UniProtKB/TrEMBL annotation:
Residues 785-895 form the Exo-beta-D-glucosaminidase Ig-fold domain. Residues 78-189 form the Beta-mannosidase-like galactose-binding domain. Residues 1-26 form the signal peptide. Belongs to the glycosyl hydrolase 2 family. This is Beta-mannosidase. It comes from Streptomyces cirratus. Residues 229-341 form the Glycoside hydrolase family 2 immunoglobulin-like beta-sandwich domain. It holds the Pfam family Glyco_hydro_2_N2.
Length: 901
């Protein structure tokens, strides 16, 4: 987040596309009788078992008159309590119970009183144990913000120790567990990210009234014999540059939980290598067992299966499986996966951080990830968004705080998506170092929580090959004392990925200069802005940047805003927009709307406003990614990374998103997809160059690049082709030609069509720009932290005079038998004359006209000249059509909407 963001926000994205609507009043709906949906969790009896609690009953502590001993005892009735899932904030539980109407629509979230969450809430869960001969531990993290913990009527931990969203706790409850039903209860304290090392939201979204208080990760019951295995992991060293071998070192902590001396055998496999060792432990002693290639030669792998980011290779994973045996019986087990890869991020000659994976440098093309506003986890929804990231050609997602559960990183490993997790800005995490943030200063207890948080996350994330760094600061780097705590924790955890001082251009004593910058912008700038190597332009590593607002599709707008709000949206640029941000800086769309009207003409209605917004977002997002891609191999001040701010939003939003809450795709989405296609022809706003960028690993040759300029009436004014082009792989760019500064007869607003064909004449890339002979002019001297103001605008109003163009569409659909359908769509410009059909969009819709989502298109928002046709494919879940046949809704800049029957 930017250092000057003023308002405090507390939320994030994940589950339900539509929440159940409940009572419209402010107070929660009371419940009577037993709590449904809170079954007793049956704990697996086997040594080494890890069983997650299935759910909770929750209630405001102020409404519970019984003692903690009673609440945490088996058989307590919990009448009138609410059911909650195994990972649930208080408000998420109330929403699931229908206590409040959908907070994602209009301003309904304001109906939820924050006073309901100003005091602790109880979380209560029962679990069943068949016998008490094994040792039993509670293992958990994810308490927001802190909790007192009780088991079977007895206190086992207090909020002084169970504090911080990321700290991990293992509580030995063996002496309290009884055969049959047992109870654990958490008295969860309210959250305030200004005061607690938890999670906050700043200016991302309107804050949830409960500030995400609750338990948002699994609480597990672990069973073992006298010897426990903990912290099992693999440290790999890959031979570079050959990749011909890798050395594995296996480590695990072996702990004797008994009161007698024990000899245990620790054995198992790390990938294809078998390991085994005996270890003798005194009563309650812990030792670290290390298996190295020196004593286990099989850990020296030949021709290892190397993990690569998606566009660079495959994503193989290995398994680590260990068992601790005592007197011939299994006492505990450990199982995890790991990948073999090497990641480095040195600073280049300009001081910018350059990531290198397995010896190959790559341009980080990323975006900022957000969880659900109420921190609800839904694997399918997360996986859909990760697939979208791949579809867009992105290779990285940045998680500023809100570090997702293990399943997220498992998916990132599987899909080959790199991740940049780190602490968030401007609240308690930066309270000691960020004078412009809202966080309070630290005391001794905060330092302990911070170090414990770093240790827990390092131990959790280190096995994931998708994790390529940890950012120990965001807008500000930590001071020496805080950094030392982080670095010591990372080293103790055998963390091998680069540690970055901050996402901003900052330094720390141990980790040095960040090599990143946070120059924005965060609000509207024109497409040409991105090509300048100053401010937020395409040079170095920009850790968060975009042109701000991303107005979603009309379908989504109607799902999230009332009719009155929709009228205000297009008619009142200076009106505060609840669905933009609580920040005074970003409360309105005034900068965006002013530019939109100046460049495209004042909107004449909601549909016209959205139509122009999609065109503007397409050109701007495309330019951002294209500029960074073109400059990646420059000899001077190359671009090394760009993180679009953001990939998605935690709720129904009007800004900072490439894809909206409901997974619909508009101009921002398809602009990014076009810019990041594997072999790509593009136009440079700064020098009018036509370049070819090859994002494939192998070179491409015998290519032809052609550029044609048209007036808006379709008359051709310029045409030139260059043949015999060759472009090396790995993100290399080559310039084919430059368009003349002046072309006779060209209208003020004009179109540029770029085509890239192979030696057989097949089209491999098509890119169409709408441009003006009058350029956007920026006042760089008046640049602030969130944008550079424009003094005059490009004139694209000539697009409104384009004649209507008819587009015919036909489609066939096949099913793969695994629940997936593919619809193949052929679009043909069926009109006469010379005018192209600009930015033609296809939506698959169901029987009632609602979009089929999620969907992955091979391409979309395409431009066709008369007589031209294109074939697109759309892949989606068959069930999302609810038994109906898919229909096509076709629309475009100058193509009236139509729906197939």
């Amino acid at each position: 987040m930017s250092v000057r963001r003023l308002a405090l926000v507390l939320a994030g994205p994940a589950l339900a596309l539509a929440l159940a609507a409940g009572a419209s009043g402010a107070a929660p709906v009371p419940r009577t009788g037993p709590v449904p949906g809170s079954p007793v969790t049956v704990v697996a009896p086997l040594p080494g078992s890890v069983t997650a609690l299935a759910g909770y009953a929750v209630q405001a502590a102020a409404k519970v008159k019984d003692s903690a001993a009673a609440v945490s005892s088996p058989g307590y009735p919990a009448a009138g309590w609410y059911p909650a899932g195994p990972r649930s904030t208080v408000l998420a539980a109330l929403l699931a119970a229908g206590a409040y109407p959908d907070p994602f629509y209009s301003t309904r979230q304001r109906l939820i009183p924050s006073s309901d969450f100003a005091a602790p809430w109880w979380y209560r869960s029962d679990f069943a144990v068949a016998d008490t001969t094994a040792r039993t531990h509670l293992d958990f993290s994810g308490v927001v913000s802190a909790a007192d913990v009780f088991v079977n009527g007895r206190p086992v931990a207090t909020a002084r120790t169970v504090a911080g969203a990321y700290t991990r706790h293992e509580l030995d409850i063996t002496a309290l567990v009884r055969a049959g039903t047992n109870t654990v209860a958490f008295r969860v304290r309210p959250n305030d990210p200004r005061k607690h090392l938890t999670m906050g939201w700043l200016d991302w979204i309107q804050p949830p009234p409960d500030r995400n208080m609750g338990i948002v990760r699994d609480v597990t019951v672990r069973r073992s014999g006298p010897v426990a295995l903990r912290d099992a992991h693999v440290v790999s060293a890959l031979a570079l540059p050959s990749l011909s071998s890798a050395e594995l070192t296996v480590k695990a902590r072996v702990r004797n939980d008994s009161a007698r001396t024990v000899t245990a055998t620790v054995s198992g496999t790390a990938g294809p290598a078998a390991v085994s060792r005996r270890v003798t432990l005194a009563p309650h002693e812990t030792k670290t067992v290390v298996f190295s290639p020196a004593d286990h030669p099989a850990l020296r792998l030949r021709s290892p299966r190397v993990w690569w980011p998606a566009a660079m290779g495959h994503q193989p994973l290995y398994g680590l499986h260990l068992t601790a045996t005592v007197q011939g019986a299994a006492s505990d087990t450990a199982h995890t996966s790991f990948g073999i890869r090497d990641v480095r991020a040195p600073l280049n000659a300009d001081g910018a951080r350059q990531y290198v994976i397995n010896g190959r440098p790559l341009l980080i093309k990323g975006a900022g990830w957000s969880p659900d506003a109420f921190l609800r986890w839904d694997r399918t929804y997360a996986e859909d968004r990760l697939r979208y990231a791949l579809d867009l050609g992105l290779n990285t997602l940045r998680l500023e705080g809100h570090i997702e559960p293990d399943e997220f990183f498992d998916l990132a490993d599987r899909y080959g998506i790199l991740t940049l997790p780190g602490w968030e800005c401007c609240d308690k995490w930066e309270g000691e170092v960020n004078g412009e943030g809202s966080g309070e200063g630290w005391d001794a207890a905060d330092h302990l929580v911070a170090r414990a948080s770093m240790a827990a996350e390092a131990a959790r994330l280190r096995r994931h090959p998708s994790v390529i760094s940890f950012l120990i600061g965001s807008d500000a780097a930590p001071n020496a004392e805080i950094e030392r705590g982080y670095v010591d924790a990372l080293r103790a955890a055998d963390w091998r990925a680069p540690v970055v001082a901050a996402a901003s251009d900052a330094s720390a004593p141990l980790t040095g200069r960040s090599g990143m910058r946070m120059t924005g912008p965060y609000d509207w700038v024109p497409p040409g802005y991105w090509y300048e190597k100053r401010a937020g332009g395409a040079t170095g590593f920009n850790s968060e940047t975009s042109a701000g607002p991303d107005v979603p599709t009309l379908d989504t707008l109607r799902r999230m805003m009332s009719p009155a709000e929709l009228e205000s949206l297009w008619q009142e640029p200076s009106a505060a927009q609840y669905h933009r941000s609580p920040s005074a800086v970003f409360a309105t769309l005034e900068l965006y709307d002013t530019a939109l009207a100046a460049r495209y003409g004042a909107p004449t209605g909601l549909e016209d406003y959205v139509r122009k917004a999609q065109l503007a977002q397409y050109e701007n997002v495309r330019a951002q990614f294209e500029a960074y891609a073109r400059n990646a191999k420059d000899a001077s001040a190359p671009s090394t990374g760009v993180v679009y701010w953001m990939f998605n939003s935690g709720w129904t939003s009007l800004h900072w998103q490439l894809v909206d809450r409901y997974l619909d795709q508009g101009g921002a989405y398809f602009g990014a997809k076009k810019a990041n296609e594997p072999l790509h022809v593009q136009y440079g706003y700064d020098d009018r160059s036509v370049s070819v960028v090859n994002n494939r690993t192998s070179p491409a040759s015998r290519l032809t690049a052609r550029v044609t300029l048209f007036s808006t009436d379709g008359v051709r004014r310029y045409d030139r082709a260059v043949t015999g082009l060759r472009v090396a792989g790995g993100g290399t760019a080559t310039t084919a030609l430059a368009v003349p500064a002046r072309v006779p007869g060209l209208s003020t607003t004009y179109l540029a069509r770029l085509l890239l064909t192979d030696d057989a004449g097949h089209e491999v890339s098509r890119n169409v720009y709408w441009l003006s002979t009058e350029e956007d002019v920026l006042d760089y001297a008046d640049t602030d932290w969130y944008h550079t103001p424009a003094t005059s605008y490009a004139d694209l109003r000539g697009l409104s005079s384009m004649e209507r163009a008819a587009v015919a569409a036909s489609a066939t659909t096949t099913q793969d038998g695994a629940g997936t359908s593919t619809t193949t769509v052929t679009l043909r410009h069926s009109g006469h004359g010379r005018t192209p059909a600009l930015l033609t969009d296809v939506h698959l819709v169901g029987a009632r006209g609602e979009p089929v989502l999620p969907v992955r298109w091979s391409d979309n928002q395409v431009t066709l000249w008369p007589g031209e046709s294109v074939t697109l494919t759309a892949t989606y879940r068959t069930a999302d059509l609810r038994g109906a046949a898919p229909r096509l809704r076709v629309s475009g800049w100058n193509t009236p909407p139509s729906v197939s029957r």
